[in-house]
Structures are given as C-alpha cells and as structure tokens.
Design a protein that fits this description.
This protein is α+β, with helices and mostly antiparallel strands. The protein contains 1 helix and 7 strands; from the N terminus they run ββαβββββ. The strands form 2 sheets. The protein has a 5-stranded mixed beta sheet, covered by helices on one side. The longest helix has 14 residues. The two termini are 20 Å apart.
C-alpha cells in the first residue's frame, strides 16, 4: 500500500512514528488473497476518513482503477484501464504514467 499527503495539508513532519491525519491519496496493490477486503472494507474506511483519491492496482491483471471521493463520501470510478497504456490519473494528472513501468516483467 502507498499513501500521499498534499504538502499544504502537512505543516510539519509528525512528532510520532505515524501520521494521524488521513492521506489525500491511497494506492492498494491487489492480490487474490486481499482483493475482496481492499475493494470493500478498506475503501469504506478510506471514504469514511475523507481520503479524496483511491487507486486500485492489480499487477497480475495489469489493471488500474482510479476513484475520487464525492461530497456524499462515496467513491466514483473515474478510470479503469488494462494493459500497456500511458494515462494521466488523478490526482497526478499533470504527469503521464506509463503503466508498463509498474507491471511485473
């Protein structure tokens, strides 16, 4: 799993060994043993805490799903792609992402 925070929301590094503020973006790397939990329980928890963007990456299926949190705290899927594409997924849409760079060889 990966997480990211917008610079303007993080005034300083945390004094503890963890972040108490929810991230702005998460990325779950799916596997057959975790996919159901990641898609249901974890996404619900992220939405409840206001994580604005969620990515689900399935390396074995070579798929990427991008979700944005709506005002009612539900995720709306913005993008679902498979294969070797170059995409500009939110919230990093200013930079192209070549999916071949994240799939296993």
């Amino acid at each position: 799993n990966l997480a990211g925070w917008r610079r303007e929301r993080m005034s300083a590094l945390p004094s503890e060994d963890f972040f108490s503020q929810p991230p702005d973006w998460i990325c779950e790397v799916l596997s057959p043993s975790t996919e159901l939990t990641d898609r249901s329980e974890k996404l619900d928890i992220y939405a409840e805490h206001g994580v604005s963007h969620a990515w689900l990456v399935h390396p074995l299926q070579r798929s990427l799903e991008i979700y944005r949190l709506d005002p009612s705290r539900r995720y709306v899927r913005l993008l679902a792609v498979h294969g070797d594409l170059v995409v500009r997924p939110e919230p990093f849409d200013a930079v192209p992402l070549d999916l071949t760079s994240i799939w296993p060889a």
